[in-house]
Please model this.
Amino acid sequence: NIEDYLLTSISAYRDWDNKSIVDFDRGPTNPLALSFPSIPRTEQDQVSQEIRVQSPVSDWGSYILGAYYFEQDIDTSSSTATSLIIPAARIASTHVEARNASIFGEVNVNISQQWQLILGGRYSYDELKYRTQAVGSDGILFPPPGRSRNSLDETDFSPKVVVQWDFNEQAMAYASYVSGYKGPAFDTSLVADGSVVKPETSDAWELGLKSRWLDDRLLLNIAAFYAEYDDFQAETSLDNNPDDLLPGSPVLVNAGEVSTKGVEIEFIAQPADSWTISGGFAYTDGTIEDYEEGN
Model:
């Protein structure tokens, strides 16, 4: 605390090293006659730092300001061999670098004793680059060899608006609009040829009630929501040669437009000092509005 201001710093570091073999058919046999001269490996280094400054609460309201930084490096490597028809081996490696920086803030303004306006926003910058290469192919199990690389950067501003009505000491109602952002990506597989996956964005609206009843022995919250997602990021299957017997390869794509709406109700009741009953109800209706490449 600095003169009633709250300064918060959150630092994180992660170093992850994983070696594993995936049993693709999950069966007791090895129908594709696969072997691994070296175990597939993934190495990840990740660093993040967040700093926030929160003001003291005053008659007019309060605010919070902050900044965030994130960086990540990932290296994967694998060596796979088969003797199903003709002996063949495939060696592949991928390197990915991701950087994200953002600034954000939120201000709570007391319009009156009962009405409050909350305004917020986040400005984000993403930088992404990768390179991948693979050698070795049998023309059956292993796709053609090759290499691919690309880089991109993206910016976004996501606003937030909330109106809150405290109509008595036990209950408040609110209406909110929040814009969401999920950064861009690459599908680093050679099958996808490093295709760019655009950022996923969302617009969400919500109406809600938070209340306490019966001398605070019953807490009841109700919310109704609706959200739209553009350029929804999802995994699909790509099969460049549907005439062969091999399954398609999983690739990351922008699937299209998705919407979801619903209602949520939750309660906590205390019928006696030694008894607590809690529960909830949720109804969600999700719809794929547009999927141009779907079938």
Summary: The radius of gyration is 26 Å. The mean pLDDT is 89. The chain is about 0% helix and 75% strand. The first strand starts at residue 6 and ends at 19.
